[in-house]
Amino acid sequence: GHEADLANMREFDMPLYNFDIQESDGCPPAMDAMVDRITSSDAWIIVTPEFNWSVPGNIKNAIDWISRVKPVPIAGRSVLLAAASPSLTGGVRGLLHFRVSLESLGVWTYPKVFALAQANQAFDDNGALANAEIAGMLETMLADYCSGARALANR
Predict the structure, then answer these.
(1) Alpha-carbon span 47 to 8, nearest angstrom
(2) How would you classify residue 118: left for phi > 0, otherwise alpha for psi between -120 and 50, otherwise beta?
């Protein structure tokens, strides 16, 4: 009963945040496009790889740009954080770093995260999760998050 709007960070190419660029040129159009996509949805799910135990720089950079708009346009929004990694930890360390940045901007982060370990081996030939137990855990988490996100959006 939900409709997904899948976005890829390649759609939102932005220069590295720099106060001088912001002062001379304003915020990049890609930031506005990203904010529009986020704020036009009832729920926001971010799935990211983990780079060196943290969130990839382009995603953090986008959040840094968004944080410059006042009031912060993603404040009060809800997000479910997920990661996929070939490591045994599934990217959970990066999600913990990312949570701090988002919560500092007033984003409500779902208390649980989904971290898919050994992601390079986790999918079958059709692109579905090969492990039924993991797929069930993800479905349960998504249903719970969507229920909470709906309640938060209607407050």
Answers:
(1) 10
(2) left
